[in-house]
Amino acid sequence: MPNPATCPFPGSRLWLVSVALMVQSVISSSSTYQRPAPGGGGKRMGFMERTLILLDVNTRSPVQVLNDNFLSLQLDPSIIKDGWLDFLSSKRLVTLARGLSPAYLRFGGKRTDFLQFHNLKNLAKFRGPGPDYYLKNYEDDIVRSDIALDKQRGCKLANHPDMMLELQREKAAQMQLVLLKEQLSNLYSNITITARSLDKLYNFAECAGLHLVLGLNAQQRNPDSSWNSSSALSLLKYSAGKKYNISWELGNEPNGYRSMMGQTVNSTQLAQDYTLLRTLLQSVRYYSRAHLLGPNAGRPRKNAILLLDGFMKNAGSVVDAVTWQHYYMDGRVTKVEDFLKTRLLDTLTEQITKVLKVVNSHAPGKKVWLGGVGPAWAGGTNNLSDTYAAGFLWLNTLGMAAMQGIDVVLRHSFFDYGYTHLVDQHFNPLPDYWLSLVFKRLVGPRVLAVRVAGLQRKPRPGRVIRDKLRIYAHCTSFHNRNYVRGSITIYIINLHRSRKKIKLAGTLRNMTVHQYLVQPYGTDGLHARSVQLNGERLLMVDNETFPELKPRTLRAGRTIAMPPMTIGFYVIKNINAYACRK
């Protein structure tokens, strides 16, 4: 399987000469590895630790150009059921979401096909159950908060009292037991989304600078098994009347309908459903040019691939982008080591290859989105999928998807129940949020090819060497005003249990580098739920202010030293890369 860190571009004599000179200078330098004197007290370094890695990047042209909203977000409809939808107006939550803009916000998941739209306002019976001893006061607080928000113009933001948030967390904890039981049994109950609920959802997206992608229920069927679009049309008309700028999709993982609902929708029927939805969008003038995404297939195994192939054959031209999902492991994993397996990290590139093969056979050049991705399904695992350890999977997902041309990656989930989200229920950012924030600040949509020397040993017959050092490169984000156009951002994942030394070669040689090293904070190591950047813990200053992301300047020509089990971003400033100037 190709190494994600070594995407070769045509070699040249200049590259070989540069590498040779670099190796010669390294050998003659006093800073190179010295063999310990016999009987010395120091521990002799292993082969992999003393190996110097030479790194260069093709700065002439990008290998991929992605969507500006490449890193995007997802919210699960379960937030209606557990009550968190009523708190999307929180200033802190909006601030955290705005930090990851521009991005898409997909409102969808397994419960997409159980959403029922009712054009009603503020009826308590649609909010779901809560503990009896505070339910009435709790509902009254929500109503009073809604009335106060309605009086605001523009973005409607709130500072919810601590007591109100504590009651909500108590309610959500009880409801999460119900939600988890549904997920494990694969038996789901309906969820009502009212006009008020949609207003709150859109207000959150609009205030945070996110573009809403709304999933419609595909399981509302007529007796002849065709899609019943009456509820969808009502929702479309309401949204158009409010002039809500929304993109649309239909259903979620249609290849799994048999196990969830006891009925099957084949690729031909699914294509007809999407064609009908496109007709509905065109009939509502405000959405005549709205984007339609689909079919949002599950992991590309046999049934999902067959469904995707039939769908692309019959309705490939109907959708603006093809969507599918990928989750790495069962949510019942119990070991942190499961998040560090290179074989697990490499499953994504295999799945992407399968999907791209099907899409390009029917619609070459059609954009492909990873419409839902997370470290684990079944809600994830507490103290694992919400810790620093999960960051290796997340950043590797972004790097691999970018190299293979996936246009958008939607992270499940920004905020909801379970343990795979970016923000917890106290509105505190988790490690994957901070990684996403640094990524958004530094990494642009132009992907560059990386060339590495000294990374791999010669593989033995019948054995694949899976790299524990993963290197990706992009043009630095044009939105970052601290760097001029032409700068390059390299991000590196070191899964080794030893330090790795990386020397910039070729076009990168003797350039000043800004380092953003992300490490776990505290004594919990890989289980940490907080991170530090260049040695300083990352914490929100207040509900509306992010901490300053301060780089550490590495002098020109200095070797990059990556500590074991860490993640680093490195900006090569003032390189004036041709691929990054436009």
UniProtKB/TrEMBL annotation:
GO terms for biological process: extracellular matrix organization. Pfam families: Glyco_hydro_79n. Residues 1-28 form the signal peptide. Keywords: Signal. GO terms for cellular component: extracellular matrix; extracellular space; membrane. GO terms for molecular function: hydrolase activity, acting on glycosyl bonds. InterPro entries: GH, Glyco_hydro_79. Belongs to the glycosyl hydrolase 79 family. This is Inactive heparanase-2. It comes from Salmo salar. The lineage of its organism: Eukaryota, Metazoa, Chordata, Craniata, Vertebrata. The gene is LOC106612917.
